[in-house]
Amino acid sequence: MGDAAVSIKALDKVYYDDSGKPSFHAVKGIDLEIKDGEFMVLVGPSGCGKSTTLRMLAGLETITGGTISIGDKVVNKLSPKDRDIAMVFQNYALYPHMSLYDNMAFGLKLKKLPKDEIEKRIQEASDILGLTPMLERKPKALSGGQRQRVAVGRAIVRHPKVFLFDEPLSNLDAKMRVSTRAEISKLHQRVGATMVYVTHDQVEAMTMGDRITVMKDGVVMQVDDPLNLFQNPQNMFVASFIGSPPMNLIHGRIEADGDTFNFVEDADSHPITIPLSGEVAEKAAGRVGQPTVFGIRPEHTSQRPISGCETTIKASVDIAEIMGEETYVHLKLGNHILIARVLTESRIAPEQTLEIHLNMAKAKLFDPETEAVL
Amino acid sequence: MNVETKDTLKRVGAHAFLLGFIAIVLIPFLMVIAASFTKGNLAPSALWPEQISMEHWKYVLGIEYEEVANAATGETRMIKAATPPLIWFWNSLKVSILASIGILLLSATCAYAFARMQFAFKHQLLNNLLILQMFPMVLALIAYRVILEFLGDYVPASGLNTHIGLVLIYLGGISMYIWMIKGYFDTVPVSMEESGKIDGATPFQTFIHILLPMSAPIFAVVFILSFISFMSEYPVASVILQTSEQWTLAVGANYFLYEQEKLWGRFSALAVLSGIPITVIFMICQRFLVSGMTSSGVKD
Hints:
The complex is a heterodimer of chains A (374) and B (300). With 374 residues, chain A is α+β, with helices and mostly antiparallel strands. Chain A has helices at 50-58, 100-110, 115-129, 144-156, 174-191, 202-208, 226-231, 236-241, 279-285, and strands at residues 6-16, 22-34, 39-43, 65-70, 73-74, 85-88, 162-166, 194-199, 211-216, 219-224, 248-257, 260-265, 273-275, 291-296, 301-302, 312-322, 326-332, 337-343, 353-358, 364-366. Chain A folds into two domains: 6-241, P-loop containing nucleotide triphosphate hydrolases (Rossmann fold, 3-Layer(aba) Sandwich), CATH 3.40.50.300; 248-366, CATH 2.40.50.140. In chain A, 40% of the residues are buried. Chain B has helices at residues 3-36, 55-60, 85-116, 122-134, 141-154, 163-171, 175-187, 190-198, 203-214, 216-231, 235-240, 249-255, 264-286; strands spanning 65-70, 75-79. The chains are: A alpha+beta (374), B mainly alpha (300). The interface between A and B is medium-sized, with 31 and 27 residues.
């Protein structure tokens, strides 16, 4: 295990109310291995336990059960300052009465580092972040993006083994978010430290993470690199959380028609039938008559024939959103809406009937009971 | 009536109302100042003294002055206060400053605990504090007296008729200030202190280096409020402080109002005098009353 690897084993967090009764089980026995120098993103909807996990890693929350190790050291009982970590908060948490220099120097002074060493480290960090001309200013005089950079600087000067980011971009405006996102990625390449980054924004997760941990209700749903997460979701939650717009999930069942298998939608009227082929057809073979969920990403649909794929459906258009070069068409099936991404060639009118080809090689089948991929 | 005249009328009406309001605030104050410069111990009656005289101020400041003793013979006599009221002024200042500092230390630390720490019966304690506060201090007067008498047997410096004893009693009335400061601490994001924790600060260092400097405005408010209330506090001080050289201004001023003769002139001079330190303290504290101290370090 590397020097700055993080190992989380059977981690549990239970909150108790005033009378000592357990009130909320925030993290339910998660296991996670973060490699030395890796950029790991924890992503999930609010209340999924991602921030709680990060705060336990930081030492700001007590651990109910399980262990957290940084390097080879179990840190459960260590105070934050002894864990060799630095944290960047969502609301920056800069000290308003101190100059930028003092904000960054505060922790180092408490560590009793020599003065020239402090100066050297702050110089280095402010060069990286472009803060050098404003070191004497107070946080009040800075913009949101600059403040967050100071917060990052305060983390850098500590030379930590592990950087922790708790939704650092949520308070920035959209433009600032994109540029700061790139800066943090560059910073990771430059310092090469282990970084753990919490966000609820799947775009941030996809663009920044070496690997991504998707969490829901205190449980890890899938840990994978961004591409795999997109292409091979392990369950319906990941499929519907990653991607924008998310994967279309259509509830229905498998029906056999001679040698071929069809997916038939659950609907009160006009259920759509999707002939299955390729890998999904093989998987469908064992599930004839059973409820099944059919998943296909909008990106894997087309108005033009896709080579090696004969599956075509016809449906009427609900609405069409023109995004520029491509258009997201919402198609009305029996009970579901299927979003298809097509090239913008001409304006698509509502109620128009459209023929859409589905790339069966990329389609997925899920078990609606376990929600796992088949 | 067109819009313009309507507007003018509205403005005149508003100004008349506000001027009247200002008069209600200012006129009594001006009358007291006038009375302190008026010859003779008369109840204040005019905004400008008919005959300007410094006799009350001289008396209050402990300066000897000449007074006509018998108008018929023109006989005069020299008058000097036996206990110069200026001593009461210093006493008041001493007690109020000591008590206010004590209040600040106690209520800030208590408020920190209530705002940030988890302990049993926290909410019950907070609410009971508020209810207790609703009983005026005067109700427990006799108890204070007995307690100080008892305490004086062991620690004479803090017994009856001592300033330390009075300050001790004043320190009991902190629950309102705890509530005020707690309310302010609640608005300071927890992430500030967590950030300090990660920076390696102990809870005490976090309190001193991070929370305290950020909370200067509320401390200034608490200091001013408690200072003003102690400068003018009468019932408790009048029971605890028994000899004239120990009195505070409020107790001493009351001494001028005999049943048979009310020395309004001296009383007024003393009243004006007591307003001076309050003004000075307010001006000093005002520097800390900068709003938006917390709004710059975080964004919610």
